[in-house]
């Protein structure tokens, strides 16, 4: 099986496992993530944190984002511009959200575009060394690459349920390793493991 085929298999299996989480459990697990990450994720006043608004069976990290805001973080979320590009627009209380493609919503074109210092990254599957499998379109890989080209190095924190872990993600040259993974069991920094 090629790395691409194995990634597709893991993606399908782990998303099916995520889909199978009952709604009540998904809410409780999301609140546990907020408790673990709310004070565990290092942010200072004015740090820009990109989160995301949940689609399908993703965890709802809005409680976590709200807690980070109380600690002084500026929040933004991804907005799809075209088939290959996302930008991060500032999310401010009370601002209207507009449809942004693929079932997502986000701030409109009048919102400020920000470069995140910390990225909360949704994913399909992950392993203990910080490799991730996204949804297959490569939006986050390209966004992270653009930030690196600007000389920026945001901290990457994968957001997933425990059931999305796999033994080993087949890494490809374009893959960027996560710095940490937040699940309902806790915030785990992978840089110590891969040292």
TrEMBL record:
GO: which molecular function terms? 5-formyltetrahydrofolate cyclo-ligase activity; ATP binding; metal ion binding
Quick check: keyword Zinc in the entry? no
Its keywords, alphabetically, are: ATP-binding, Ligase, Magnesium, Metal-binding, Nucleotide-binding
- Catalyzed reactions: (6S)-5-formyl-5,6,7,8-tetrahydrofolate + ATP = (6R)-5,10-methenyltetrahydrofolate + ADP + phosphate
Its BP terms in the Gene Ontology are: folic acid-containing compound biosynthetic process; tetrahydrofolate interconversion
Q: Which cofactor does it need?
A: Mg(2+)
Pfam families xrefs: 5-FTHF_cyc-lig (PF01812)
So where does substrate get bound?
Answer: 53, 58
Q: Where is ATP bound in this sequence? A: 7-11, 132-140
Q: What is its EC number?
A: 6.3.3.2
Family the entry assigns? Belongs to the 5-formyltetrahydrofolate cyclo-ligase family.
UniProt name for this protein: 5-formyltetrahydrofolate cyclo-ligase
Q: Which organism is it from?
A: Rhizobium lusitanum
Q: What is the lineage of its organism?
A: Bacteria, Pseudomonadati, Pseudomonadota, Alphaproteobacteria, Hyphomicrobiales
